[in-house]
Amino acid sequence: CSLGLLAQRESGCKALTLNSVILHHISGGGAGVYQRRRRRSWVWNQFFVLEEYTGDEPLYIGKLHSDMDKGDGKVKYFLAGEGAMSIFTINEETGDIHAIKRLDREQQAYYTLRAQARDKISNMLVEPESQFIIKVQDINDNAPVFLDGPYSSQVDESSPVGTSVVTVVATDADDPTYGNSARVVYSILQGEPYFSVEPKTGVILTALPDLDREARDQYLLIILAKDMIGQMGGLSGTTSVTVMLTDINDNPPRFPLKVYQFTVPESALILSVVAKIKAVDLDLGRNAEMDYKILDGDELGTFGIITDPDTQEGLIILHTPLDFESRSSFSLHVEVSNRIVEPRFLLVGPFSDLTTVQLQVEDVDEPPVFTPSVSWMMVSEAAPVGTIVGSVSASDPDDSNSPVRYAIDKRSDMERHFSIDSSSGVIRTNKHLDRESRALHNITITATEKQAQSLAGSAVVLISVTDVNDNAPSFARKYHITVCENAQSPSQSPSPLITCRLTCLSTDNTASVLTRQTGLLRRDQLIHFLPVVISDGGHPSLSSTNTLTITMCSCDLHGGQQLCHWGAPHFQSILSAATVMICVLTLCNFGAADRSATQGIQTRILDHEQDIQENIVYYDDEGGGEEDTEAFDITALRHLNQTKLTSRLSNSGTERHRMIQEFIRDRLQVADQDLTAPPFDSLQTYNFEGVGSAAVSLSSLNSQDSGESEGSYSFLKEWGPRFRKLAELYSHNKRGQWLDLQEGDL
């Protein structure tokens, strides 16, 4: 048995053969079954149906038929697959296939379906299911379309014929494999004779050699695309193409005028624009950029010319001042040329042009002019009022040469140190001058025409005040010098010096202060005042007396200062013979500066004068004189950090002395090391005097010495001024009488 299909084609109906499997009926079990016997091959062809069918009835496609169908109505037919029962239907009884909707090949070119033949009663397949294709046949129902249109392109002006501008492409949705429905050709509807288009490729080309942008810079082309190879009945589509001609430098610059005339006032400022000229260039952008140049007519370089980058104008600039009286007119020859030149157009002619610029200088009223504009003069600070310092001169540069009037600008000489003769320009001193107050005067002199004072010229006069020796030298600042007690003297001098008077020996204006005697002690005198006479080397020589303040300090073994009582009382005394200092000064003219002192002398500058206060040491026990071995040694207290304290035990015992000794040492050490602590008053009380005093005991008990009688104390007068008061007291008191001496008496 076989399943056949009749297909409707253009020439009518044609029987088609499907693959089929013969199924045999097997009895048994009360149910009919089929047994696969064998399979034979059928020849199957695809169906064709025209798209876009617009009839009122369903479109007949073909007929499905099985050899098992005896025409007795026992077999029914079915369709499955793409579009089954929605686009395509089948008559179950006859197997006729129809299309019930209009087909569009551009949406779907073919459909795959499956055909079945079943027994009506058992619904079993009487033939194996077979697959077939319904292909939609194309008709020319789509016109060419320019998907990228409209187009825009550029091409250089004066391009050769055949230069490619742009390529246009049209797309046809019809079947390119069936007929000529999708075969497109191109033609130009608008744009001839300037442009043409290739029929098959759509390339637009230039058709004329002399397209000039300056004449016309834009073209609108209309391009046609037609299918069916352009034959009658073919569909077509169009697009527009805008072609812009780009500029090339094919036009030289040209001056509209051969002669330009301008008027310039002689008062025009340097670097100001005095004239503008402009050449015309029909090109655009960089092709129209121009350079201007002055060829001749300005030998001295009075003018220059530059190009305005925005307007391409030639700007004539003034480089040097104009003077109507010297030159009243200029005739400049100016050239303009392009910066960028197309070599192929040089054969046509030079890309430059020439013109003449005539400049007339206008006379204006000018202010007087000083010669020179800056003057330098000198005058002594000792010059009396009315002394002539110098003179200035100014003249009217105009032809009228009007007389000039002089004056000093008050803002430059607020204190009226100088005056000027309004007619002659002679400058005189108006006050006494002081070089130390002001060494240089910078004054401005003005000059105006006597008839018209609206315009004024000015000049600068620098007056230097020369020095005379009218100031005695003095110390540059206040000095406070410190020196360690017991400092070693670098030199010895048999005679004391009260002041130091030396002339200038060098140019560094410094001096050195040296001790002349060793063994200087703070307890003897804390502060020394050294008068210093300073002389300069002027004519006549001037001098002044200055005082140096020298403070004695307690120092360690290495010379480091430990205690300097800046607040000690001011003993108003000049250096005695025992405390003479050697002053070596090298000072010149205006003051002195300190130099590092030798042998432990240091210089210290005090920011503020401090209060001077005193330290009071009070002793409850005077001691037992030379035989008092239990007393405390005051020398050991003074040099606690240099000499180890040694004292003998008193009646209270060794332990009590040791505790007091440690207490005093700790307190002194704290006070000595704190150099920043203010010098407040302190009260120190000692219950015992000590032994081994360097000044020897002052007690009257058992103090006979070298055979002196008990009532004779005349030997005290030989001990010097320090014991003068003691000698006077003992000369009026009996031996053994209690003495109450104050510290100031010693």
TrEMBL record:
This is Cadherin domain-containing protein. It is a single-pass type I membrane protein. InterPro entries: Cadherin (IPR039808), Cadherin-like_dom (IPR002126), Cadherin-like_sf (IPR015919), Cadherin_CS (IPR020894), Cadherin_Y-type_LIR (IPR000233), Catenin-bd_sf (IPR027397). GO terms for biological process: cell-cell junction organization; homophilic cell adhesion via plasma membrane adhesion molecules; morphogenesis of an epithelium. The lineage of its organism: Eukaryota, Metazoa, Chordata, Craniata, Vertebrata. The keyword Transcription does not apply. It comes from Oryzias latipes (Japanese rice fish). One of its GO terms (molecular function) is calcium ion binding. Cadherins are calcium-dependent cell adhesion proteins. One of its GO terms (cellular component) is plasma membrane. Its main location: other. It holds the Pfam family Cadherin. Keywords: Calcium, Cell adhesion, Cell junction, Cell membrane, Glycoprotein, Membrane, Metal-binding, Repeat, Transmembrane, Transmembrane helix. The keyword Calcium applies. It is found in: Cell junction, Adherens junction; Cell membrane. Coiled coil: none annotated. Residues 66-146, 147-255, 256-370, 371-475, 505-571 form the Cadherin domain. PROSITE patterns: CADHERIN_1, CADHERIN_2.
